[in-house]
Amino acid sequence: MDISKIYKEKGENCWQESGVFGNGTCEWLDNYYHCKNCPVFALGGRKLLNRELLPELVNEWTNIISLPKDADNLSKKSYFIFKISDEIFGISTNIFLEALVNKAVHYIPGRTNDFLHGVINVNGELHLCFSLSNILKIDSVEMINTNNGLPYFNNLLMVSHDNIRFAFPVSEFYGVNKFDVDLLQSPPQTISKSEETITVLVADYKNQKVAIIDEDKLFNRIKKKMIW
Question: Which domains does the chain have, with CATH numbers?
């Protein structure tokens, strides 16, 4: 099957005419269900990415990239804000991957405990699910037990650092917020001097205190817990 020939016959934008983005009359939809699964659509994407750049476009992006960076953005850092029990925390958006809802937890025989909940399925991949509240030594997030299925958590966060990826349950999540670096505070000495603490900074968020988690300390604690 010559896809290039079919691509020319159908037209360069057949997905917008007879495909799912058009009137839906394309006979190939019976086999591929959606244009994104069709080799003709894939060929169109490759042609778009491999097209020759116009000098005007190169000049435009050169001017955009060469603009001086916003000084205001340089003085701020982004954190994903969430809540566990009655306390609010923040993790750097550098390690934050995604927020998850209603994920079933699969037990690992002989391994599941107060620290390791088990594994969860995220986009077809299994990932370890740890208890951050156990590390922080605060009240744990409630797991929802069902009569007809696996237990699950309402809200989880997926993070990644140094090729380690895992999830942990939270009570609520509030999204990304930027904090002025100069306004970040050190935690109380009773907390900061503890060898077990993983919170290194404190920020103000909607009239509440946010404990900023150090990603290196967090993942070092996880690595130690993963040694069985």
Answer: 3-65 (no CATH), 75-225 (2.40.50.180)
